[in-house]
């Protein structure tokens, strides 16, 4: 199955001030957005504000961050001290902040399928050809968390709205991260407006709750030199706890998603397009009309082909994902919106502060021994 590609240009260029002024063509596009999110939990979009060159620039920088020899990086950071391998990157760790800023080392994020018994029962009920690969432990990938956008001056959830961490030796870091992250948040805001219209809600039903949310640009780095064997699970079967997740195109395939009907689909993102996936917060706001999309990242045949090509061209063998997690504002209340409040399933989604919801989701995994995995 090929996911449809939604071109955002007609919506962006339309001079509208409310739902009533949408042309029938735009209304149809908005309905297609909501229908696709509801049925598949994923959507491909083309946004003229987010170019392939922007994505490449970002991935180039993250490859350099992840692949630098540890010895070189340690000398840059503290020339008079002796470090163990990987300790340079660990200087950007903030475990006390649930790893919501700075770096998350490999071996920290635990896929929920390893600790959630209800999820384990669900995946075992899937047809064998649709079952995910079973990870043997925490994910062997690094992640860097960088906040995007403004944060509230006062909040009950300060640790989810903390200051960013900037690594040494990357003068372009802040501008590159802020630029690409802001463009992807803009794309999500447009999709959120279109989805709201398609669901029969006011166009700002979602975006109004996103203002000053703890949006996180969260690229992953997976070392294919060390972990490039077919079947290696970089991100075990899981859902995202946030509102909507957006990815630029990775240079190494491997992402699969599960449709609402349980079918497993490998995602192919065309050049110049972005992938959007539904998270748990939009499930809450729609009383389960949209469900949080399950997905995994695994080394497969297409990944191996990409590794071979990159090796021949002397390119980086770090698999970088340009992932951004958009969130509902921490102090806003998650509850079914509009007509979704009348859904028979609404009682399964009681009102809760978004920040409290995030902390509860994190604590489920923390109690199982993880120190901050966000899956």
Sum up the structure in keywords:
four-stranded antiparallel β-sheet, 33% helix, 12 helices, 375 residues, alpha+beta
Topology:
Elements: E1 5-7, H1 9-13, H2 24-40, E2 42-46, H3 52-67, H4 70-77, H5 87-90, E3 102-104, H6 117-124, E4 142-147, H7 173-198, H8 207-210, E5 216-217, E6 220-223, H9 224-227, E7 233-238, E8 244-247, E9 255-258, E10 264-266, E11 274-278, H10 280-285, E12 294-298, H11 301-312, E13 318-321, E14 323-326, E15 333-334, E16 352-353, H12 354-366
Parallel strand pairs: 1-2
Antiparallel strand pairs: 2-11, 3-4, 4-5, 4-6, 5-14, 6-13, 7-12, 8-11, 8-14, 9-10, 9-12, 15-16
Helix pairs in contact: 2-7, 3-7
Please, could you describe this protein's structure?
The protein has 375 residues and is of the alpha+beta class. Helix content is 33%, strand content 17%. The chain is built from 12 helices and 16 strands. A hairpin with a 5-residue loop joins strand 9 and strand 10. The radius of gyration is 20 Å and the shape is globular.
């Amino acid at each position: 199955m090929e996911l449809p590609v939604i071109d955002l240009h007609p919506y962006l260029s339309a001079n509208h001030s409310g739902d009533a002024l949408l042309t029938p063509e735009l209304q149809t596009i908005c309905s297609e957005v909501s229908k696709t999110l509801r049925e598949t939990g994923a959507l491909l979009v083309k946004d003229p504000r987010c170019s392939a060159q922007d994505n490449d620039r970002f991935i180039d920088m993250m490859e350099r961050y992840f692949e630098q020899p540890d010895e070189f990086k340690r000398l840059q950071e503290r020339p008079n001290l002796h470090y163990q391998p990987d300790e340079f990157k660990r200087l950007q760790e903030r475990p006390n902040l649930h790893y919501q800023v700075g770096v998350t080392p490999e071996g920290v994020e635990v896929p929920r399928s390893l600790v959630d018994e209800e999820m384990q029962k669900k995946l075992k009920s899937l047809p064998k050809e649709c079952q995910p690969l079973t990870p043997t432990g925490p994910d062997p990938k690094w992640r860097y968390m960088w906040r995007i956008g403004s944060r509230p001056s006062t909040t009950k959830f300060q640790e989810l709205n903390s200051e960013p961490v900037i690594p040494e030796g990357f003068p372009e870091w802040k501008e590159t991260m802020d630029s690409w992250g802001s463009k992807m948040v803009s794309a999500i805001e447009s999709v959120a407006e279109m989805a709201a219209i398609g669901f029969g809600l006011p166009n700002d039903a979602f975006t109004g709750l996103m203002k000053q949310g703890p949006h996180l640009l969260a690229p992953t780095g997976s070392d294919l030199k060390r972990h490039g064997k077919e079947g290696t699970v970089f991100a075990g079967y899981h859902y995202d706890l946030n509102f909507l997740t957006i990815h630029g195109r990775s240079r190494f395939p491997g992402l699969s998603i599960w449709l609402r009907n349980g079918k497993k689909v490998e995602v192919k993102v065309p050049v110049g397009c972005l992938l959007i996936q539904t998270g748990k917060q939009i499930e809450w706001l729609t009383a389960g009309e949209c469900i949080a999309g399950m997905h995994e990242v695994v080394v497969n045949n297409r990944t191996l082909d990409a590794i071979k090509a990159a090796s021949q061209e002397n390119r980086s063998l770090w698999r970088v994902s340009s992932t951004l997690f958009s969130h509902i504002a921490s102090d806003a209340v998650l509850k079914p919106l509009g007509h979704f409040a009348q859904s028979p399933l609404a009682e399964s989604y009681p009102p809760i502060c978004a920040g409290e919801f995030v902390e509860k989701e994190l604590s489920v995994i923390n109690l199982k021994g993880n120190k901050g995995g966000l899956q």
